[in-house]
Amino acid sequence: MTAQLVSYDPSNGEKVGEVTVTPTSDIDGIVAKARVAAKEWGALDINKRVELITKALAGIEPDSEKFAVLLSREMGKDLRRSSGEVRWVIKGGVGNAESARQALATRELAGGSLMQYRPLGVVAVIAPWNYPVAMANNLIIPALVAGNTVVFKPSEETPLIADAYVKKLNSVLPEGVLQIVHGDGQQGAALVESDVDMIAFTGSQATGKKIMERASGRLKRLVMELGGNDPLIIMADADLEHAAQFAVASSFENAGQMCIATERIYVDDSIADIFEKRVVEIASEYTVGPWDQQGVNIGPIINARQHEKIVAHIRDAEAKGAKVLLGGSDQPQRYIKPTVISDVTPEMLVETEETFGPVVAISRYSDIEEAIEKANHTNYGLGSVVFGGEGADKVADRLEAGMVGVNSGVGGGADAPWVGAKQSGFGFHGSADGHRQFAQVRVVSR
Ligand code: NAD
After folding, report:
1. C-alpha of residue 263 to centroid of ligand 1, in Å
2. Does residue 180 have its Cβ closer than 6 Å to ligand 1?
3. pTM (2 decimals)?
4. Which is it for strands 323-326 and 262-268: parallel, antiparallel or unpaired?
5. pLDDT tens digits, one per residue of 368-389
6. CA distances from 87 to 64, 80, 99 (A)
7. Among 147, 154, 284, 416, which residue's Cβ finds the most Cβ atoms within 10 Å?
8. Domains of the chain (ranges plus CATH)?
9. Residue 25: CA atoms inside 13 Å, Cβ hemisphere, count?
């Protein structure tokens, strides 16, 4: 009997729907089909590919509302956020297709040689659940524009929205160009080991390391966008209201389940009391609840394992002497109420690991050197933010991250790369440089 993958509403545990798990023994056949399709797809003119991809993405438009509701029911975020994600899939996808077309055009080098960007073949795209269609789309679109075919393995937490997305695109794309494999890490691992040429992955560091190991046999190409543990430094001359608003919003966005969520805050001693007071006031205005309840801005946590991890991090901080200013480790099922803790120290789990929940974790510093050292003292390097006056740019220069914010959040600029430093990434997507990583560079000397 074929196994079913059931998708549950994280706000109440009710079944939303189910899909059939792809037997791992089928994966080689799926990849073989993708390889056959890659011949024709890769040989099409890039303008034709972009035209088809743009038409396929536009096909989501009339069903955007349905897509957003399904995304909310399956993943838990409120409808406003889900609608935003669906809009981004269409608009950002079309923008990416256009910029990839330009980035991948053949260039003539000084001396007359030609620099070409050719398809790699078959790309496995493996995605997480927190932005289940946007993260996948960010990898699928440049892979397709470059002339590759794609086998997509969505997260086992969000198979339904992924399935709806693939079906919609496939009403326009030729057969075999985009296929889906359903299942968990087993299917992911089997896909990595199959006859694919590249793995484009967004997810945790732990999984990224396994993928790299398994991809090494055939030196498969890799683009990996991995976890973060983003610091936020608040200098004495920062705009305090702006900084406090940002600190809370960035820690709580998507119920804290965002790779670039603020995870650690270092605030100058001289303003720490007033900053903490204001953070607590702002955080108290957030409400938890299901996606369809008016005014909710923190949804449920995706599953019990993640919930337990967040509670364990808060409990660990409490046990090691942190002060709970709001919320704490006594939490209801399925949700984490807005939590603010202070007096965080370097050995606490909220400091050393990615908590991925709606927790504001604050520690104080007396010397900016100490704050920079603490911000950088980690294997993570996705985003890093500083709020401050004139000296903020100098501090920003020294932050070890792929994306840095000065009095602003990170990333998201038009055609900017989405990139992690250190163990938060390997390769990257977005921007001309990112799009080119989905292609084989070829130089023809004449
Ligand atoms: P995860 O690593 O547990 O799973 C991601 C995907 O990998 C899923 O589809 C999963 O089934 C699959 N997988 C699991 N084991 C595998 C294996 N051995 N081989 C191949 N595939 C395997 O991550 P998650 O819990 O779904 O997502 C949350 C993580 O993703 C967080 O760490 C977050 O920071 C990170 N993330 C990063 C970015 C970014 O752009 N840097 C964006 C979103 C999420």
Report:
1. 18
2. no
3. 0.98
4. unpaired
5. 999 999 999 999 999 999 999 9
6. 7, 11, 18
7. 154
8. 4-227+421-444 (3.40.605.10), 230-379+383-406 (3.40.309.10)
9. 1
